[in-house]
């Protein structure tokens, strides 16, 4: 049986960023990934936005790790050839009420340490994004875009170069707690580790359950987000990133427009609770349903300008409204859960790593590195 210092369950962007950080310090780091390739789940089914950190409550893990992750991600992409662009973004208001919301968002961002935020008027919006309808906008200069597939691969490549073993087709199906570690059973064999890191994304609650941890009670509810794309002839209608004022932050930042690093323009993601964590394609929303949201931002758009694109599934900790929880807690924006398991202190649990997890990954890795240091001391 293999012996390891550290086993990481899940080869998404978070598991791979952690593997990169930990493999600089420890020799035996294993990443066990259930699927045939790394990053095939949520990590490459997203908007690819390098978020700034304006939305999250000051002091929350999301706020701290997003702001830190933003600068770490730019540094990493530049150093390792990951396609990216610091294009900035506009959060646009369509009415006076929404313009007030923009001031609140700006103050929240400033409290989180986001630099360079400023409000602009219709004329300046026209100069930046001539096809967008809005009375006011918040400019967020530190937001950008990247290729999420290249980012995951680059984290994994460096981890492997430093000696980590990234094993695919290795679904973990049993975990036995030992006195000084864990024995992990996967489709690729058994391995004993002194430290286990659960970064299994949508399935992190189930992996916590394999260990018999009470932290499995942090149930993950899958919320699917679907994207459309603008047809090629309309791609020049959008130059950067355009977001609406968010009205249901608990669910999402709102359907937005993203000019990707490849030049195509995405519209999405929507947000609907689903029953099956593997259901990416069944019962897709009709393209007509996107047209309304799209017209709020780009009034010239018609249905013929949109084509269906991919989907991604958010690992939400907030249950659907009406599921036996008070409306107050159902409406709360949940924070990332990243902690050593109180019952199994050799295990670090990462649960509910939804957006801005892509951006926060290198900062999450720094935090987990400190926890691993305590465990392996
Ligand atoms: C629609 C959408 C848009 C988003 N947009 C953005 C954005 O623009 N910017 C941003 O910062 N964030 C965004 N996010 C969030 C971001 O994509 C996630 O936070 C991030 O990808 C989470 O990474 P992860 O590694 O935790 O999860 P995953 O990518 O889900 O990786 C977990 C891995 O664990 C594996 N696994 C599960 N169970 C097991 C098991 N038993 N054994 C072995 N392996 C297992 C899975 O196969 C998977 O590969 C978005 C998310 C969605 C859904």
Offer a concise description of the structure.
The chain is an alpha+beta fold and 377 residues long. 29% of the residues lie in helices and 27% in strands. β1, α1 (13-22) and β2 form a beta-alpha-beta unit.
SSE arrangement:
Blueprint lengths: L1 E8 L3 H10 L6 E4 L16 E2 L10 H20 L3 E2 L3 E5 L2 H16 L6 E4 H7 L7 E5 L3 E3 L1 H14 L3 E3 L4 E7 L2 E6 L2 E10 L5 H7 L10 E10 L10 E4 L11 E4 L5 E4 L3 E2 L14 H10 L8 E11 L10 H5 L5 E4 L6 E5 L5 H20 L1
Helix pairs in contact: 1-5, 1-9, 2-9
Notable traits:
9 helices, D-Amino Acid Oxidase, Chain A, domain 2, eight-stranded mixed beta sheet, single chain, binds flavin-adenine dinucleotide, FAD/NAD(P)-binding domain, nine-stranded mixed beta sheet, about 375 residues, alpha+beta, 2 domains
Strand content: 25-35%
Question: What is the subunit organization of this protein?
Answer: single chain
**Run of helices and strands:** EHEEHEEHEHEEHEEEEHEEEEEHEHEEH
CATH topology title of the largest domain? FAD/NAD(P)-binding domain
Shape: elongated
CATH class (first level) name of the largest domain? Alpha Beta
Weakly predicted, low-confidence segments = none
Mean pLDDT: 95
Name the structural class. alpha+beta
Per CATH, the superfamily of the largest domain is FAD/NAD(P)-binding domain
Number of helices: 9
Distance between the termini: 23 Å
CATH architectural group of the largest domain: 3-Layer(bba) Sandwich
Query: Count the strands?
Result: 20
